[in-house]
Each structure stands twice: as C-alpha cells, then as structure tokens.
Amino acid sequence: MQTATTPGTTRRGPLGSAGFRRFLMAHLISSTGSAMAPLALAYSVIGGGGGAGSLSLVLAGNTVPAIAFLLAGGVLADRLSRSRILFAGNLLAAAAQGALALIVAGGHATTAAIAACGLVSGAATAVTAPAAQGAVRLLVTAEQLQRANALLRLPGNAVKLLGPVIGGLVVAASGPAWALAWDAATFAVAATLLLGLRLDAPLTVTSALDDLRAGWTGFWSRAWLWTYTAAGTVLVAAWLAGFQLLGPVVAARRYGGAPDWGLVQATFAGGLLAGTLLALRLRTHRLLLVSVTTGSGLALPLLALGVGLALPYVLLAAALAGVGLDLAIVAWTTAFQRHVPPAELGRMSAFNQVGERLAVPLGYLVAGLAADAWDSRTVLLACATLIVAATAVNLCVPDVYRVDRAGRAGPAERP
Prior knowledge:
The protein is an all-alpha fold. It folds into 2 domains: 13-205, MFS general substrate transporter like domains (Growth Hormone, Chain: A, Up-down Bundle), CATH 1.20.1250; 214-401, MFS general substrate transporter like domains (Growth Hormone, Chain: A, Up-down Bundle), CATH 1.20.1250. Helix content is 78%, strand content 0%. The chain contains 15 helices and no strands. Helix 5 crosses helix 14 (345-373) and helix 12 runs antiparallel to helix 15. The chain is globular. The model is unreliable at 1-10 and 408-415 (pLDDT under 50).
C-alpha cells in the first residue's frame, strides 16, 4: 500500500513523493479540460437551438447528481481502493464527455442528450470527490498537508485565468465539439495516472448502511465539523447569490457592463492564485480559525457593489476576497485531513460537501425571490451581512480555536 511514509517525502516536501507527483499531474491535466468545458457546454446548447431554459436544465442535470451521489461516494471511499474509485470515476467522466463531443460534432445535440451526458459526468465527479480527499492524506505526511493542498489548488486557479480565454478561442475557431473532446481526453489521461497510485482498500467488515450511520454519528460528534459545514452553507449561498447572480446585474446598471464585470471576475481569479502562492509559504497554527476568518473576506466585493463604490475599489475588494477564500480552503482542507482519521475521511468529506452543494440552488432561489421584493443593491448588502453573521456565529464555537496544526485528537478525533 502506498502511504505517507513513501521514501523521499520528507526530503523534498510533498513533491518528493512519487505518488503525490502523479496525483498532482492528473489534477493539472484534468483542470485544463474542466476550464474549457462550461463554455463549450453552453455553446453546444445554444448551437442546438436551446435558450436559457434549456441551459438551466443541462446545468441542473450536472449539479443534482453531485448532491445525490456524494454520500455514496463517501461510503465507497472508506470501503474500496481510493485509486480504483478515482480511476473508474475519471474513466466514466471521459466516456460521458467523449459521447457528448460525438453528439455535438454529429449535429445531434438535443437538450435531452446533452443533459443525459451531463448527468453521467456529474455523477462520476461526485463519486470521486470524497476519494480524492482521502488519497492526499495517504500520499504525504501530516506536516506536509498544507503545502500539498496548496499545490493542488495551484493548477485549477491558474487555468481559471487562461482556460476560459483559450476555450473561447477553440470554440470560436473549431466549434464546441473539439473543446469537449479535449475535456474527455484529459479525463482519460488522469484516469490512467490515478490508477498507478495503487492505494489499497481499507479493511471493513460492516455493511454499507452501517458505515453510513457510523459516518453520520462521527460527523455529528465533531462540533467543529458540522458547525463549519452549516456556516459554510450560508456563506456559499450568500456569495453565489450576491456575486455570481446579482453581480452582473449591478455591473450592467452602474458600471461598464460585461467588460467591467469580466475584469472583476479576472481580478477575483487573480486573488485566488495569489492566495494559493501565499498558502505555499505561510505556516498557520490555528488552521480552523484562519479558515473561518479569511473566508469572511467574501463579504467585501458584495459590500463594495452594494454601496456603489467606484470600480477600482470593487476590483480591490474582489482581489482580497480571492486571496482570503483560497487561504480559507487550504487551511480548512489541511485541518480536516489532520483531525479526521483516514478510515473516515470519505464519509466526513461527503457530509461536508453535501452542505456546500446544497448552497448552490438555495442561494440562487433565495436571491431570485429577494430580488423581486428589493432592489439588487439591497440584496447584495443583505448577502454581505449574512456572510459576516455566519462567520461571527462560527467564531463562537470553542472548537474553532482548538483545531490546529498539531492535530491533537480529542475524544471524537482519535482513530
């Protein structure tokens, strides 16, 4: 079994582990395809004669399985070989995206066909997410987790700056089918790399249902875990409602429309990348406290847009939010991996991610209803207030100050 004691891990940091290098390479390759896929998917729907309603159906088909299959993926990750789960999930996603590319290229891209491929791809991604969380803990030492998590964030944040631009050029020059085919190819290459990890399956004698029940008990017994998940659900819902949904509306009315909003998005992505680079060098002791406080920076651009500040201040707020968010993600992931035993990482990750995924439809629904009653800037200020309030409530949890880099296990954290 490949574990964190792999030779070379301590000598050169996480990159000294051959298994982690393979995992990182698979993530990098897959990220290049994932960055182009949303744009190609949208233009596949439009090219097939669909409009906003058809696109929302396709996006829902991609999102719903992420919620439905996460718990199954969490149980599987704690029962089966994580490398085999990652291999199968990426291979299934490759098949789904490859089939979609062929459908689009052949001119048969109906909304139903695109949604069906998205359903399969979304299910594959959801099943593999908990396994990926647990795999990192087995590939590097506990002391190297923060740096490893930051390195894994680096490819995705880098391609967020370049991927959509390159994807747009590919779609404009040759059509969406080629971009979708590239996404399928990156999934296939990633699957091959991940199979080579050869992480053995955990030993288990209980049923899957018993594992799920035990997982919920373990999740609920860790106050720091479920309170962070609850606060995170509110925070993510408010952020998506304010920034993703209402931000473009306010930009169109007060600022320069799409070009200015594109600049805000790019600045936020640049902040994410800067946050990753900072996380590579910054040693934080109270990991959960750092995550809770830096994540509250998401309120800044909502506040700037809500009060109508000039564009340069909005850009500054977006950059600071990006830096804070990435620091929060790296600190949280590191705390989670250090304080949850490897045998439970899959299920604990699944319960945590279910809360965050539920925030997506919740945020859009609440924002849509609120926008009918109030103007967009008032809703933006309300969303900023929700983020600050969720952070303040989370800071009242004593365990937030105890979950640190040392990874000292309390009663609920001991294997």
